[in-house]
Amino acid sequence: MRQSQIKRITKETSIEMSLCLEGTGQAQVDTGIGFMDHMFELLAFHSGIDCIVKCQGDLKVDSHHTVEDLGIVFGECLKEALGDKKGIYRYGQMAIPMDEALVTTTLDLSGRPYLVYQAQLPCQHLGNYETEMTKEFFKAVSDHALMTLHIVENYGENTHHIIEAMFKSFARALKQAICIDEKNREQIVSSKGVL
């Protein structure tokens, strides 16, 4: 069973997170940011990963530290749960429409962190969530999961729809990449022999 549990405490946030890659998409999430709770629930459902997230952050300042640190811990949990990455498909890609918005995510569990993020978000706040933090979340995930991650908003008008399409397309691409190829369960998908 590929799973992980991480606790990270700083002067700005206290986060406990657990992931189970062989899950059923169940989520128990309390981040203090309603929109972020919603995004984690979508991420779990569409990736098939079970997750428990408990977070207390300095929301009296803003959502920056909380959202970025959630990305750090999610990335670390994902990296730990993947272990040596034997048997995984490694790559994933998905385009998701959300009403007028269309977002494509392409990722590679390469061991090399890199983020390409192309999006225009018309609205600055969704509740107590600052929408510019979406890029910071995915940058933290990419850096700490050691993932090459490309997120491209093809078009869109409604900020909620655009960000929701990002999380859904990311989750569906991740589901493909972490899936075990039963024919090559002991193989690492790299000509170098290591990811």
Task: Describe what you observe in this structure.
A hairpin with a 2-residue loop joins strand 5 (91-98) and strand 6 (101-108). The chain has helices spanning 34-47, 64-82, 133-145, 159-178; strands at residues 3-9, 13-20, 27-30, 50-57, 91-98, 101-108, 114-118, 125-126, 129-130, 148-155. Helix 1 packs parallel to helix 4 and helix 2 packs parallel to helix 3 (133-145). The model has no long low-confidence stretch (mean pLDDT 97). It is globular and about 45 Å long. It contains 4 helices and 10 strands, in the order βββαβαβββββαβα. The chain has one domain: Ribosomal Protein S5, domain 2, CATH 3.30.230. It has a 4-stranded mixed β-sheet, covered by helices on one side. Strands 5-6-10-7 form a 4-stranded mixed β-sheet, with helices on one face. Strands 8-9 form a two-stranded antiparallel sheet. It is 34% helix and 31% strand. It is of the alpha+beta class and 195 residues long.
